[in-house]
Amino acid sequence: MACPPWQHDLSRAFKRHRAGRSGWYLQVHGDRLRLVSKEFPPRPGEQAAAGPKQRALTLSTPPGPSTAATALAEACGVFDAVMAASWSWPHPDATPAADDPGHLQPSHLRRLTRQLREQLVGEQMQAGTWERTWQPYLNRIATTAEERNWADDESFLAAFLRGWPPNSRSRQMAYDRARRLWKEAGWNWPEELNSLRGNGKAVAAAEGVRSFTDDEIDQLRVSIQQSRLTAADAVAWDCMIVFGLRPKELQGLELEWRDGQLVAVVSRSKRSSRGSSGARVVPAVPPAGWQSDCHGLLARWRQEGLPQSLLSARSPGQVLTQQLRRLHLPEELTSYGLRHAFALRLGLDLGLHVREAAELMGHSPAVHLCTYGRRLDAPGLLAKVAAILTAR
Q: 266 forms bridges with which residues in the sheet?
């Protein structure tokens, strides 16, 4: 009976990895997948045979087209470990993670990383996002594996996570990336590591997010007019100011006049581990003292458009922040500070509910509270305390 296409492709890929070394086979045995070879060492307690003896190892990955990539990574890891003479038969009572003795080999981890990249890039993120926010952490995993032969997953992953400051955003991202890789391989994740995750809040400024003040926004506009930046650059900055956009949302942006109000139609969606946002319509909410037409923004947008350098940039936020540095504004200000200022105008000036403000910002109420709660609650809290003291 001919083997199914997925099994044929799996065998061919495993053969390419062995680089011509024969005597290794992958076969389906019932509902399990087995790796067969005469190069496996004798089992514990097994009497030495007169000559090479064919032995079979049952893989932890089940057979099937959806698990073929994971099975290939597992089989290649075992092969590499046997060739390096570092492989031994797993204990009968071992956990599923230990069923793959080569699972902490650097080559195996790098292969899993490539496999994960193929799944995520193009479907859930762009290649640039992977390179900036995934690849560095997964490269560190393979580097940690090269340091020594690790006894178990818990000690290996604990050493990996302690490479970042405790309770920091970077450690949180390292934890999440490593756990996703373990899930991809079908390995058990040690729950004892939960305390090492961190939540990224320890590094937050005590006063909350750093946003532009109205005076700093006026200073920014004056500096742009006096600089070599173009009229299209000024349009981009004004859009950031009055609509609270993410820099990436300038790409595909449309401005309209609806029912006597200037609005932005944001078409670019965003996906992250904390959720996703789709297209939305955002009304202009300018700083105090601005005219309702936001200094003729719609007419300027129709005439000048947005700068091509921003529309084609992989990271428009980086381009905008570099412009800020050339304008000699305070170092702690970034282009995202205008989005923070917009969020505070919605809550403090307009008094919008968290759910309403989050809808206009394009994220969840939980994210809104986590990011801006400290700044939004402070005025009301101080007023409440003052009222209680006065009435006492």
A: 280
